[in-house]
Design brief:
Strand order of the largest sheet: 1-6-7-5
Distance between the termini: 24 Å
CATH superfamily of the largest domain: MutM-like, N-terminal
Order of helices and strands: HEEEEEEEEHHHHHHEEH
Strand content: 15-25%
CATH class of the largest domain: Alpha Beta
Shape: globular
């Protein structure tokens, strides 16, 4: 699942490489991706890219007075092919929409899932996309504060891992980085926000900010086709079940709950007790 560090790197790449290029052609191969039927992606032909921005896990491609918002969902991504680039290998995620740009460049919106999670919206303002309008504060934002974080937790009787991934509460975090945040903060993935004491809440805030912003810095400048591999390689606990915790050496464990999974260290996060 793309999360804010990778999506931020993608947006920065598109802003740098795409600005000034004209959209010469659009081919939507999966029409379920189109979320604005009155303003389809084909209406963008002839427009020039003026910039790009990130909104949570969504990418906005700016095109003058309108924008193409690509909602990446669970399996979506974008692929940039220069004029002399080889065709993608058969095992690579399929393109669901193709944008032909000037200078022979092709920009593809892809989806690697068994069901379509990618969404394409042509809007005058990104907040016209309902998921963006409902986004909570973003820990990557320099203006993000402890007060905003405490408001998101709100003393709720809900598991902290779920709140971290709840886009209406905190924008941009998904399953992988929530595991990393909780491990760094030494907080159990199943503890309720209402049960956190002041020290634990403070550690969780610090871990959220440092994990998200540190990952954005680490992903900066990495080619967009390598971002997923870089993300996987950088994980301390997520996807590392059965391996040794890099902090204490205990075995990292899996735990499945509420239609999701978590990887965690018992010694660091649950008082030595497996969940």
């Amino acid at each position: 699942m793309p999360e804010s560090p990778e999506v931020e790197a993608l947006a920065r790449f598109l802003a740098h490489a795409g600005s000034g290029r004209e959209i010469r052609g659009v081919d939507v191969l999966e029409f379920r991706t189109v979320k604005t039927r009155a303003a389809p992606p084909s209406s963008l032909v002839g427009r020039k890219i003026t910039g790009a921005a990130r909104h949570g896990k969504h990418v906005e491609l700016e095109l003058g007075d309108v924008s193409l918002v690509v909602s990446l969902g669970r399996h979506g991504w974008m692929r940039w092919l220069d004029a002399d680039a080889a065709e993608p290998e058969a095992e690579e995620p399929p393109a669901l929409a193709v944008f032909e740009l000037s200078d022979g460049v092709t920009l593809q919106a892809t989806d690697a899932g068994n069901w379509v999670s990618l969404g394409l919206s042509v809007v005058g303002d990104p907040t016209e996309v309902p998921a963006i309008a409902k986004l909570g504060p973003d820990p990557a934002d320099p203006a993000f504060t402890r007060a905003a974080f405490d408001a998101a937790l709100g003393g709720r009787r809900k598991q902290v891992k779920a709140i971290l991934q709840e886009q209406e509460s905190l924008a941009g975090i998904g399953n992988a980085y929530s595991d990393e945040i909780l491990h760094l903060a030494r907080v159990s993935p199943v503890v309720h926000a209402a049960a956190l004491d002041e020290a634990a809440a403070g550690r969780l805030f610090d871990a959220t900010v440092s994990t998200v912003r540190g990952a954005i810095d680490a992903q900066s400048g990495i080619p967009i086709d390598r971002l997923k591999a870089q993300k996987v390689a950088s994980m301390r606990v997520h996807g590392r079940a059965g391996e040794a915790c890099p902090v204490c050496g205990d075995t990292i464990r899996d735990f499945a709950f509420a239609s999701t999974t978590a990887q965690y260290c018992p010694t660091c996060q649950t008082g030595g007790e497996p969940l």
